[in-house]
Design a protein that fits this description.
Shape: rod-shaped
Strand content: under 5%
Number of helices: 3
Order of helices and strands: HHH
Largest sheet: none
Oligomer: single chain
Helix content: over 70%
Number of strands: 0
Radius of gyration: 42 Å
Low-confidence stretches: none
């Protein structure tokens, strides 16, 4: 009888130990899941911040280009892109004829 009580006690202790281990495992899995969720949220926020930064940079670039175009810098640069020299002794290319030719492409100063 005494032997049976000892075995029963040992069995109960083993079962209690197994339940405690299972509780620890459940708690550990829950904590790991929580950490994974927090990490995923951190990565998502990081990605969103990166995308917003990129969008802002692209908008600033577009705004700078628009400002550049609106300020007339393009026209000024275009005016500088072509400088014509010719030999005045050539009868086929008078100043007037050259002016008319280049006016086909835009304003001639």
């Amino acid at each position: 009888m005494r032997h049976e009580k000892m075995r029963k006690k040992e069995t109960e202790l083993a079962e209690e130990k197994a339940r405690e281990e299972e509780r620890k495992n459940v708690k550990m899995r829950a904590e790991m899941k929580k950490k994974e969720k927090l990490e995923a949220e951190r990565r998502r926020q990081e990605m969103m911040a990166s995308l917003k930064k990129k969008e802002l940079q692209e908008k600033q670039s577009r705004d700078e280009i628009a400002k550049f175009l609106n300020d007339g810098h393009v026209a000024l640069e275009s005016r500088k892109t072509l400088e014509v020299f010719w030999d005045k002794s050539c009868e086929d290319y008078s100043a007037q004829r050259l002016r008319e030719f280049f006016q086909e492409f835009g304003k001639v100063l």
